[in-house]
Amino acid sequence: MAPPNTPRETRPPRLDALAKLPIFLDLAGKRVVLAGGGEPVVWKAELLAAAGAKVAIYAEHPEPELEALVADHPDALTLHRRAWTDSDLDGAWLGVADEPDPAEAARFVAAARTRGLLVNVIDNPPYCDFQFCTIVNRSPVVIGISTDGAAPILGQAIRRRIEAILPASLGSWGRTAKIFRDRVKELFPTKADRRRFWEKFVDVTFISQAQEDEQLAKIERLAAEILADKGDGPAIGEVVLVGAGPGDPELLTLKAMRELHSADVIVYDRLVTPGVLELGRREARRVHVGKEGHGAACRQEDISALLVDLALEGKRVVRLKGGDPAIFGRTGEEVEACRAAGVPVRIVPGVTSASAAAAALGVSLTHRDHAQRLQFVTGHDRHGALPQDVDLDALADPRATTVVYMGRRTAATLAGELMRRGLAPATPVIVASNASRADEKHTATTLEALAEGAGLAVENAPTLVLIGAALDASEREVSRPARTSLRLASAV
Ligand SMILES: C[S@@+](CC[C@H](N)C(=O)[O-])C[C@H]1O[C@@H](n2cnc3c(N)ncnc32)[C@H](O)[C@@H]1O
Questions:
Q1: Amino acid 14: pLDDT
Q2: What pLDDT is stored for residue 473 in this prediction?
Q3: What is the overall mean pLDDT for the chain?
Q4: What is the active site of this protein (predicted)?
């Protein structure tokens, strides 16, 4: 009988096979030989110089761009106006050649390998011991991307995405971290405490606006806060009012994306589209404070109190608002509530819906021939009527473009008032709903037709009413209806 099996610890394989091993070479002060004077050599020379190498370039006929680059980097780059010879490779670490002639390429590789150099013949994979990768540079943080030559365009697309989510200041934070490393060891003797510090540090690097010369002081304070935190209550979080833009997730700013990626809680309203919300950090709690169906929205004081309470619990709260938070977004109340409670609060602007509508229409809201002034007004007061205190004379200015937010229900009344104050009945009007979204609609009409309700049929969609001669320059084919006849011009 076979003996019983004994328990045996197994380990899952940790890493799938790698096409190439990514390593980071320290080339500071090391000799590198570059053979060739054409365009591909220019970028390699720049790259190697940026990495601190001493680059000897051998080219009988260098491109003017290469000559200019060498002139700009006299310490790093030396240009020899002749063909390379075997002995030029002596003492070098790397050999790079732009050599289309197969026999010459083979000769370069043989000479380099005999001397133990790693070699790269540009665009000739069999003659490459290493490859240059696509780089995201936030030195000392450097990210290299390789597709092993399969699809360089894919590498570039990945780079663009990474560039978009990494703040430009990451590099300076990296340098600051290097300077602060020894101090962290002094302040936090245990590994666990040091880890706690570095985790908080990472959070700060992604959201702080601090300039390089302010960063050391900032992380000194951070360290002091962590040391002072005896565990008798969470540290205060913060509230960031973030503009979600008009709906199309592509119109989010890079800053807004970063905030969404580092949120603990996302408090959002009705105008925030699912596509934008989707971009929030997976683990973040999501709290909807807008209208549900035809129900009422949450009370503003409850929303403000919620933001404050969450931040006092130590949460990083992203208050996500449609369009730009500073335009009809009740931002004032929320900022005041945070300040009154001692909660740090910041604003990240967004693309307002008027800008999105203008872009889709192909118009400039301040076309120099038609408008000297752009006015954003609200079309409803707290009871849903046209606000009593709105300056109708200013709105009737024929040299202005007026964008009415929340104005669908009162637009007809407004149009009548404007005509009574002398604005021409034929003044162009566009009623734009769902700007930047898949179901975007524009109705072109006139002030006179608007006064009779023309173009206002789209229910339950966020709608702007744009009034003014500048809208006449709209690129899209819109028919100007006679009084009540309308044509819907749907968006691209
Ligand atoms: C409370 S205000 C918020 C405005 C927002 N902060 C902005 O900058 O666009 C809501 C009004 O904005 C307008 N609005 C917001 N998003 C819109 C969109 N995608 N298309 C058209 N109008 C929009 C509508 O007039 C809506 O009633």
A1: 67
A2: 65
A3: 89
A4: 269 (proton acceptor), 291 (proton donor)
Residue 185 structure tokens: 């060891």
Provide the number of structural domains found in the chain: 4
User: Is there an atom of ligand 1 within 6 Å of 251 CB?
Assistant: no
Say whether both 467 and 382 belong to one domain: yes
Q: Please report whether residue 321 resides in a domain.
A: yes
CATH number at residue 209: 1.10.8
Residues 50 and 120 in one domain: yes
C-alpha 115/C-alpha 121 separation (Å) is 16
Residues 388 and 473 reside in one and the same domain: yes
Distance between CA atoms of residues 247 and 437, nearest Å: 6
Q: From CA 299, how far away is CA 290, in angstroms rounded?
A: 9
Q: Does any domain span residue 24?
A: no
SS3 191: helix
- Tell me the residue type at 319: R
Q: What pLDDT score was predicted for residue 38?
A: 94
Q: What is the pLDDT of residues 357-383, one digit of tens each?
A: 999 999 999 998 889 999 999 998 888
- By C-alpha distance, which of 326, 346, 335 is closest to 255? 346
Q: Which residues are catalytically annotated?
A: 269, 291
The answer to whether the peptide bond before residue 462 is cis (omega within 30 degrees of 0) is: no
Q: Which of 295, 322, 296, 321 is nearest to 307 (CA)?
A: 321
Given the structure tokens 């560039």, which residue do they identify? Answer: 163
Q: In terms of DSSP bridges, do strands 54-58 and 31-35 run parallel, antiparallel, or are they unpaired?
A: parallel
Cα separation, 428 vs 111, whole angstroms: 75
Q: What is the pLDDT of residue 361?
A: 94
Q: Indicate whether 242 pLDDT > 90.
A: yes
Question: Looking at the predicted structure, is the pLDDT value of residue 29 above 70?
Answer: yes
Same-domain check for residues 261 and 281:
yes
The residues, ordered by sequence, that sit 6+ positions from 80 with a Cβ below 8 Å of its Cβ are: 56, 57, 58, 59, 88
The predicted structure's pLDDT at residue 180: 92
Whether residue 458 has pLDDT greater than 80: no
Which residue's alpha carbon is nearest to atom 14 within ligand 1?
462
**Cβ of 433 below 6 Å from ligand 1:** yes
Residue 480 has pLDDT above 50, yes or no: no
Last residue of a domain, one of 351, 376, 408: 351
By the 10 Å C-beta count (0-12 exposed, 13-18 middle, 19+ buried), 199 is classed as exposed
Q: What is the pLDDT of residue 474?
A: 59
Query: Ligand 1 centroid vs 246 CA: distance in angstroms?
Result: 7
Task: Match 């008027």 to its residue by tokens.
Answer: 354
**Structural domain of residue 279, as residue ranges?**
238-351
State the distance from the centre of ligand 1 to the C-alpha of 439, rounded, in angstroms.
Answer: 15
pLDDT of residue 164: 83
